User: Fold FMN dependent NADH:quinone oxidoreductase from Pseudomonas benzenivorans.
Amino acid sequence: MSQVLVIESSARQQGSISRQLTAQFIARWQASHPADRVSVRDLAVEPVPHLDGNLLGGWMTPAEQQSEAEQAALALSNRLTDELLAADVLVLAAPMYNFAIPSTLKAWLDHVLRAGVTFQYTENGPQGLLSGKRAFVLTARGGIYAGGSLDHQEPYLRQALGFIGIHDVSFIHAEGLNMGGEFSEKGLAEAQAKLAQVA
Assistant:
């Protein structure tokens, strides 16, 4: 039995293509892996605070010297990191906002990319500690960006996940969604077909 962690980041609850893809992924995954456990963290419903002085203090200040705010920030970061550590499969649902990922997803990453926990510094440079995990990234994009210079989603997420040792990453892009007609239909259909293959 595997643990699947799904991270939703679309600001929209209704009409969200990334949420639609997530629902389809979960349904197909559970049909193929009925014993697996799936948990969902919705960053729109429960936003994660952006990196601030309290979180930095919680990481760097000895426990007996931490303020209440630092303790609370550290407790949340620990909870988010524990969820990731427990997962065998990570699913990130990421609509493209201004050529990149939602700031809520960036905030989540800032909580879980932690020295000594999900990666470590060695004589040979940083080393990820989460090897053996798989990740799927479901994106929704108004235009067509895959492989182009304006795609700051896939390169960044590959770098961030690889940094903590997650190198088995599959991207499913639903593109051209705001271009109308055959572009949006084709983009969604291609994403759904690829999703059916990988899930």
Summary: The longest strand covers residues 89-95.
